[in-house]
Amino acid sequence: MATAWLTCKINCCTKVFLTPKRDVGQITIHDNAFINRMIVVTWPLFSLFLLSQPWLSNWANNTWYDYSSDYRVYKADGSVEGDYNRTGMCDTEAKYMHCTDGQNFTKLALKYRGKAVGCGCGQGVLGEGLCPMTSYGYTLSDFVSTEPAIAAMLGLGFFPLLGTWKNTMLINRLAKPSWFFERVHNWSMLVFQIAYVLWGIASDCIFPTAHAVLTVAFLGGFLFHWVITALICIACMGIANIESVVTTYVACTASGIITLGAIPRVFLTLNDAIGYNIFPNWNRGIGSYAFWAAEAGGLSLTFGAYPILLIAVYFFPEYSDLNNDGEVGDGEKQLFALFPNIEEAIDNEVEGNE
Prior knowledge:
Elements: H1 2-17, H2 24-51, H3 53-64, E1 71-74, E2 80-84, E3 92-93, H4 105-113, E4 117-118, H5 140-143, H6 147-156, H7 158-175, H8 179-201, H9 208-237, H10 242-261, H11 263-274, H12 290-303, H13 305-315, H14 330-336, H15 342-353
Antiparallel strand pairs: 1-2, 3-4
């Protein structure tokens, strides 16, 4: 009796949780569509975080620079000894903080915080934003030199990067590049990923040299990866293909933005190399934001290449036929689908239960 009851329960659970006859291709398409929706949702949040850093840094740090949680300590007998707090998130004396754009940090701190303190290395919600701390102006690296900021950047960038890996594998499958360029396509993404992780670990205020090298490595690797993607798509499907257009546009625009934003740094580096101040110091006024704006804009574009593709194909579904074979196959559905046919999925579910 007990065995029969248990068997009945198992069969009932199987019918509730499992549909063995479901089409695996449809499951894959729907799973990929879910990931694609997460990519489209998180990319604007990632870009918004990057592009709002100067404002967000000042607002958060000026508001909570003296915040500290209470820390409870217990005696040996288990009773409460007391609740203690610390000096605040930002407790570096203003005399140790130096604005690189000529402003007086102490005056800025007193004006906006009412106290002569700054957010030193690793302190604050984001890195110090009252004035630039790097010789050539504000940088994205300065702003994400704190734990909350780097966690937000890496976390919000997870799904867009997952989309780039997904795009890489499916482009290889649909376009069928040569063995050599398939390896280049995959390894360029891997080089970027490794450099990006190490860049996040090597904070610019703790490991400045390593951070600077890794910045060039991960930006260069990612741009090179999208150039290879564009070339593979052009070779297979022509320049008019949606993937070719978007990736070419992203690679060229991001490269141009990052190159222009690097000018203030290049000028100062050349002055140091020559030993004479031939070139101007643009780290003044709005020029102080040039390098940061180039980093934030370039990363927003490169991380957005795949989400832009998804959005473009959603509004213009005729571009889903990536390899121009006259039909939209499972591979293309896995690549571009955002909202697959729900009625078709339900019909398959019913058929699977019969």
